[in-house]
Design goal:
The structure is a homodimer of 140-residue chains. With 140 residues, chain A is mainly α. Helices cover 49% and strands 10% of the residues of chain A. Chain A has one domain (12-116): Winged helix-like DNA-binding domain superfamily/Winged helix DNA-binding domain (Arc Repressor Mutant, subunit A). Chain A has six helices and three strands; from the N terminus they run ααβααββαα. In chain A, strands 1-3-2 form a three-stranded antiparallel β-sheet. Chain A binds a DNA duplex (30 and 30 nucleotides) through residues 19, 23, 25, 41-43, 52-58, 60-62, 73, 75-78, 127-128.
Chain lengths: 140, 140
Amino acid sequence: MTRAEAHYSTAELPTELFKALGDLTRLRILSLLLHAPMRVCVCEMVHALQLPQYQISRQLAVLKRVKLVDAEKSGTWVYHGLDAEHYALNRLAPALRELLQGEPFDRDRARLDRRLSMRDGDRCVVGFVDNISIPENAQQ
Amino acid sequence: MTRAEAHYSTAELPTELFKALGDLTRLRILSLLLHAPMRVCVCEMVHALQLPQYQISRQLAVLKRVKLVDAEKSGTWVYHGLDAEHYALNRLAPALRELLQGEPFDRDRARLDRRLSMRDGDRCVVGFVDNISIPENAQQ
DNA sequence: GTATTACATGCACTTCTATGCATATATTAT
DNA sequence: ATAATATATGCATAGAAGTGCATGTAATAC
């Protein structure tokens, strides 16, 4: 089973894949994961994307359904990353990196970088911060 | 205006693009156009995809809205082709060619090839044929 | 045990999208 | 002019998908 995944026909696979890409929040999440050098937990994405936690969780569920994203649990934290074995994703990744430029993608990735710098080693230790106190050039 | 198109924000562009790709009929149309060495008219697509004419026209309208496809009119015939200048499409085309394999894409392209062989020069002269009488290995 | 925190999801609602049918438009032929 | 043909689209309906809120689950800390 290299390209075809369980219960999907050959034709459904690319269709469902592109459907999953057809949403701004999900593209923003993918932009983060294509950029980050490690897995990212939900609260870090909430911080980077400035969206409610349930939005991130829900769109992550969609991305997991089409196997673009997988997760590793560590305590109450869940670290999400791209499925390195995903055939189509590996084909599309270079184009995605090029297309997911400009706003809001650039600003999202900048916020993620600052947030990741708050880690203790490779672990998120911050959780949800309501009023984010990391200096950022508050331009809109 | 290289990458950004009129009335679309930077972020909407890739989102709308992938939304347009997230439909099997539209992917089948794109598979035809990525394969064919020339523009293809609607009745030829109807023949190749075995779908009602209004379906082809409607999905073509969606593809035209995101500028993936453009059209040239010649009499009552309208020849559709990929927009050779489309930045994202050119990035995605190699991956698309790889992903749009298997059924029904292969069979669609085979039917298109037979149908295109019925042209008079570079012109479609057949129109709609209700019961297509081109021999095909009828393996459903 | 209880409390807290990180994350996931059920529900109600709304909005978008697809589909089928019928019909409109436009061009050619007569 | 009418007829015929290729293509496009309006309309009604059905189903899918997005959104916000509240709540559920699971792990840790005490």
